[in-house]
Amino acid sequence: MKQIDSFSEYGRPIGRRALGLWALGVGLSACSGGGDNPASLPVVTLEPQDAVVTEGETARFTVTAQNETQLRYQWLRNGTVIEGATSSSLVVSNALRSDHGARFSVVLTNAVGAVHSRSAVLRVHAAGQVVASDWSESLTAYASPESTSPAEFGYIAIGTGAWVYAAAFEAGDYVLRRSRADGSVTETFRLPRVPNTYTQIAVWEDPATREILVARCLIASVALNINTYQAVGGGIYRLEPVSGQFIPLFESDRITPSGLARDTSGNLYTVDLKTGDVLKITAGSLQITTLYQVSGQQPLTAGGVPYDFVLRSKGLVAVTADGTVYATLVTSSPRVAAAYQLYGEQWVRVRNGKAEMISVRTPAQTNGITWGMGARGNSVFFLYKSAQSTLVRKVDAEGNVLTVAGTWGSQEKTQFGSPGVLGRTSKWIGIGSDGQLYLEGWDAAGPRFFGVLLPADPSPF
């Protein structure tokens, strides 16, 4: 905080002498009117804080000071007075990209004089654009709506070279289909079924080498109780497209890998569906390290957990370009609302070897869960769905949580692919090598594909 030397009024600078005479006049006026007069300059107790929003959203700046009833306020943008901005708060509605980097401060004045607050910086991220996809309509033969069955059927991943991956169940086996987006090529790889289990599949394709990795999560019915399920193990495999063989990197009945990501050093990351723990599998040695342990919680099995929690849950994990790991365990079970609070949105972030819980929602956004996650650059993007809204959001490198596409409270059951609207049938497929997020949606005509053009992070200043 500093005593003000000069500021501009509607673009016209006001010098120290003029300001001093004006403040003196305020003081004389106050004295002539009687009453309590301040004995010192204004004292700010809470400075205006920096704000980060997506274009079109509202930013708010607030200052708090002692003896507020005796103060006058004047907000400035980049040193120039904002006409009419004379309260303790400033609202910037419908923020534009041109507002990125603007600095907002406030002059507080009483009978003694004036002080100038710190300058708060406004950062404005570009919004994503919902666009139609040029993928072949023939691909929709393999698509399916959000499944309530244990397996994650339908399109589940996108690789480089416009390869699209879909999971299906065929002739008693789980299969992974790889198709060209133009529908010209389709390959089927069979993953033999383990007796008395269900399978979830996660796919990760190396953008440089196009190596294909597959995480298999096994879920089984508890003996003598067909309505209770538990995670029973699985493995991570390398898919050899020529032979169609799944080569195991590791298999275990103690760890149930759900979700899959890899960093630039070749280390793998997954979520153990048994415990919710976030795991790292070191390249080469395949040593398994727990990055974050869900302490004090029971394993996600039959004991005290509604039967369909494990059955309809999955792990999500992503690694950004700077090596930051994001992970969460989510469930689509309507019977475990309490578990939404416990697991669904309590994300884990591991950065520079330090694991911490983070929140991706505000107190007013308590009934939604994450339906897909992927990284681009140093940001992680995710599909957030609630009873009111379907949104594409992101967490940037500084930890800011921003809405990229969609609008709060604009839930549409069937509409998708129109500007700013994401229907509740939207399903995450993945972020392509072109930087675009691909989604699948359903309406009365059946499944269709669309995308969200993900904006780059704004430049520093």
Concise synopsis of the structure shown:
The chain has helices spanning 16-32, 308-311, 337-344; strands spanning 2-3, 7-9, 12-14, 44-46, 51-54, 59-62, 64-65, 72-77, 80-81, 89-92, 103-109, 114-116, 120-125, 129-132, 154-158, 163-170, 173-180, 186-191, 197-205, 212-221, 229-240, 245-252, 257-262, 268-272, 278-281, 288-292, 313-319, 325-331, 346-351, 354-359, 369-376, 379-385, 390-395, 401-405, 427-431, 436-443, 446-453. The protein has 461 residues and is mainly beta.
Task: Describe what this molecule looks like in 3D.
The structure is a single chain. The chain has 461 residues and is mainly beta. Helices cover 6% and strands 46% of the residues. The strands form ten sheets. Strands 1, 5, 8, 9, 11, 12 and 13 form a seven-stranded mixed beta sheet that branches. A hairpin with a 4-residue loop joins strand 21 and strand 22. It is elongated and about 85 Å long.
Distance between the termini: 22 Å
> What is the CATH level 1 assignment of the largest domain?
Mainly Beta
Helix/strand-derived category reads mainly beta
Q: Please tell me the overall pLDDT.
A: 78
Low-confidence spans: 1-35, 144-150, 296-309, 334-344
Percent of residues in beta strands: over 45%
**CATH homologous superfamily classification of the largest domain:** TolB, C-terminal domain
How many beta strands in the DSSP annotation?
37
Tell me what the CATH architecture of the largest domain is: 6 Propeller
How would you characterize the largest beta sheet?
7 strands, mixed
Number of helices: 3
Helix content class: under 10%
Pfam family, one: Ig_3
Organism: Acidovorax lacteus
Protein name: Ig-like domain-containing protein
Domain Ig-like: 42-123
